[in-house]
Amino acid sequence: MVEVSLREIRNDLGWRLRRCRAERARARSKATFIGITGSSGKSTATSLLGHILAGQGRVHTQVLANTLKALVRTLYKRMKRAGKVDYVVFEAGAFEPGSIRGMAEILKPDVAVVTMIRLEHVTQFRTLEAVAREKKALVDALSPGGLAILNADDPHVLEMASGARGRVATFGQSGAADYRVTDVHAAYPDLLGFSLRWHGGAMDIRTPFPGEHFWLPAAAAIATALELGVPPEKVAARLASFEPLPNRCKVQTVDGGPQFLVDTAKAPWHSIDIAMDMMRKASAARKRIVLGQISDYVGSSRKYGTAYGIARYIADQVIYTGDNAHRSRANQADHDSGRFLELRTPKEVSDHIKETAVPGELILLKSSSNLHLERIALAWAHDVRCWIPACGKKEGCQDCGLYEVPFEEHKSFLANRRLERRRRRFGWLLGGLSLMRRA
């Protein structure tokens, strides 16, 4: 017999109540709800689309926190605080079979956007077809009058048009795309530009992104905005003021020091060659690549050796860090010459770069989020004191905000901060009680 604790019952009832409130809030809202999913590019597409639509009306953008719990919290709590909104743009992430379907049933999107299908969360999905089925749940949830924005270059995404209950618009480099992308170019410090053409319109797009691969999420966001009636000139104006997300190929330049391409939010195997190609096309006085944890691959860890074989012909120095730093298969000559360097912790990498940096060099920081290699770039502008190799937090150091506090002091620091907030909030009451006692 399975015993269920009172706490478990209370938590379950609380969750059911929050979900009911979220469903009720969705039913009452007159906003246009937009769900964005895909194996890559969804966070950038979500944040960019939210920024563009903010020029048209009030927008609630939910990016990075892309789970069912985050959606429920957004609908029943945060939207209530925000008041009336015209658009809700939500990033939907797939972590296991059924994860998107649960979100889609609550979100009931008016617009569903799918960027691409790649093999992600490999232990859960196993095949591309399984990933595609999961992402398609967002398109399946569209109302008959809804709109699907699909990548015409990805056959797994394009197949989602079949059976879609709403209207379909496609984007991509394919000649059959409704919004066709051509003339893609980026070679840092030259930032991404491309041409976009559709029936009755054309734009020359200029973006703040350093790599060519960003054309896909940018085109997805722009095509969606145009379909929603945003004028092309307003799209261009909003693009000019967009600030890319931290840790997703975000450029950080140090006056008189190095330039960093910080790409530390994720590192699935299918994206490694994209990051390497970005570095290959870039121009800089010197190039270095720091590689940490690679994720989402099938087979042996020989992928680290393959990655090094590519990186050594692009960069003047390649640095491997983390638990797999020893898997580079770099030859002895590369070890001896310093072309390859194995440093086990982010702190060691940071110290080495501080000692050896030259002005104007370009350094790519590429890793899954667990190593938080963004600290290496942050250390040039902040007194980073949290150098635990892997803290277990999923959010980036910028969102955590505790990188200037040693990790072992995080709990006490947060407790003191909560206490100080309570004192500021209720201090007037405590002061009044004290005066009453004296009287």
From TrEMBL:
InterPro entries: Mur-like_cat_sf (IPR036565), Mur_ligase_C_dom_sf (IPR036615), Mur_ligase_cen (IPR013221), MurCDEF_CellWall_CoF430Synth (IPR051046). Signal peptide: none annotated. Pfam families: Mur_ligase_M. The keyword Ligase applies. One of its GO terms (molecular function) is ATP binding. Coiled coil: none annotated. Keywords: ATP-binding, Ligase, Nucleotide-binding. This is UDP-N-acetylmuramoyl-tripeptide--D-alanyl-D-alanine ligase. The keyword ATP-binding applies. PANTHER family: UDP-N-ACETYLMURAMOYL-TRIPEPTIDE--D-ALANYL-D-ALANINE LIGASE. It comes from Mesorhizobium hawassense. Residues 36-225 form the Mur ligase central domain. SUPFAM superfamilies: MurD-like peptide ligases, catalytic domain, MurD-like peptide ligases, peptide-binding domain.
